[in-house]
Amino acid sequence: MNWLSLLIPVYNVEPYLAQCLESVMEQAGEGVQVIVLDDCSTDGSWALMQSLAARWPGRLQLMQHAKNGGLSAARNTMIDAADGEYLWFLDSDDKLLPGSIGALQRIVRAHAPDVVLCDFSVWRERPRLKHALRGERHRRSFEGPSGQLLRDPAQLLAGMLATGQLHAWSKISRRALWPGLRFPAGRYFEDLMTMPQLATRAASFYHCAEPWVAYRQRGDSILATMNETKARDQAGALLPLAACQPLPLLQDARVQFAWAHQCARGFIGAMRYAERLGRSAPRARVQALADALRADFERASPLLPARLARAYLRRGWLLRWMKLRRWLKWRPE
């Protein structure tokens, strides 16, 4: 059995794919399975995959969907095909930074955690000083202790939710955690829906406070191309976690605040889209969307809005308090 499976979904990423796979194959040694799945790309991605596979004979496992199913479906297919003890999802327009797989292997050999979290850097084609000043060279994916094995699932979940960095590619997990858990096909913000559930299954974790992934900033991201469907998925992204409510760790005060705060962030982001929509769409349509977003927020959050607002004030988070109040009261003109 391989100790690691790297799972790379591909859809119309021909300009970026070679950089991604080169960053993996330069450091993927024995015991590392690399699966690359084409989700019916309409550009030259599939042909490029075949060409790149010839550069590393027998080292890339190529797959192809018969019809386009989206990112979640692609990842789910690869989970079923993986045989590694650990799973690492990598988007095909991003890349692994040098030494990442070796650093992961040292942690796995020394501590064997259920989940390993890594940090990341934002990768821009034309980085500027302002980007460096924003801390884009090193973004944390976890708020809490680093460099040690921890066995507190509530701390894992609260630390993930606190940063809001819930992407799948910064969490390497045991394949044994995935039975019965899959990414939601046909939904947006699928990582927010899935990774918190994964955290509830982990008995131990390790956070490495080093960037292992270079995340490419693109102009056609989900947030840059919002619509009503995406707004609903954003506001209700943590509804699957609410369905896990009987779990004792979800009653932890750290988890409840971080969870409610992340729900508020998603709600506010979705409401900003509703406000933009209100400049061109009928008022009744925008009002219906705003009402639905508020309802999704309240169903997903473990704390009622008024209680979360009081928690913000106790922490001195006046700006957060003001934003939450504004968007809870917002109505289209």
From TrEMBL:
Pfam families: Glycos_transf_2
Location of the Glycosyltransferase 2-like domain: 5-133
InterPro entries tied to this protein: Glyco_trans_2-like (IPR001173), Nucleotide-diphossugar_trans (IPR029044)
PANTHER family associated with the record: GLYCOSYLTRANSFERASE (PTHR22916), UDP-GLCNAC:BETAGAL BETA-1,3-N-ACETYLGLUCOSAMINYLTRANSFERASE-LIKE PROTEIN 1 (PTHR22916:SF3)
Name used for this protein in its record: Glycosyltransferase
Origin species: Comamonas endophytica
Taxonomic path: Bacteria, Pseudomonadati, Pseudomonadota, Betaproteobacteria, Burkholderiales
